[in-house]
Amino acid sequence: MRKNENVFFSVIRSVTAWRRRAASRLVHRCWDWARSAGAVTAARPGPLRFGRIGEGTRLAFPQGTIFGERWIHLGDHCVVGEQVTLTAGMMPDLDLGPHPVLRLGNGVVLGRGSHVVASAPVVFGDDVYCGPYVYVTSANHSYDDTGQPVGKQWPRTAPVEIGAGSWLGSGCVILPGARLGRNVVVAAGAVVRGEVPDFAVVAGAPARIVRRWDPDTGWQPPLRTPPPVPIPKGITPQQLVALSELEDRAGA
């Protein structure tokens, strides 16, 4: 192959690579714009008409399945991740009466891909944090009639309540009738039904209490690690870096 042919193909490859890089940058810029423009807030609700959407609350784009918005009340400063499903009622366009069916308190965080399905009332207290792909439902399939497919049988429903300050780990399932107290920790992948008292940790399928706070003796069984030291108020990022470097020198 001649030298000028090598140069020609080298130029073609360079132009092709430049075009691909430019196309990639354009796609990402367009997607970033779409995510910003498609986010739902009280000031920019888009096509959604929630019964209430509080100040500072934001639903990331793209949203999951959402219907029955009139019976969904979202508190202030909630964060709803991408592809989160929020539904009130078993299907769209039902009249569910005068009261909200799904309520999020203030400061609730729903992780990416989570589902909250409310046929009977579902209530989240303030500052409940959920990891990704959490599933909370107040309806469950019944299988009483062996002559009918399970999916065609009328479901059982029961209200669900999640106490303020609780943490729901990734992939956990909260079943109809569950009532979680304050500051309950649900381990990743747990399946919860029934009542869970305040200040308890549950894990497993079905979930069982594995740790609980006792006012006289503290956490039982005792925690394996000491509590983390909070960052003092007013400290700057530069001071944190300097402190980290100082600790590294002291440990060397």
From TrEMBL:
Superkingdom of the source species: Bacteria
SUPFAM superfamilies the record matches: Trimeric LpxA-like enzymes
Single annotated GO MF: acyltransferase activity
The protein's name: Acyltransferase
Residues annotated as transmembrane: none
Keyword terms: Acyltransferase, Transferase
InterPro entries: Hexapep (IPR001451), Hexapeptide_acetyltransf (IPR051159), Trimer_LpxA-like_sf (IPR011004)
CDD domains xrefs: LbH_MAT_like (cd04647)
Stated family: Belongs to the transferase hexapeptide repeat family.
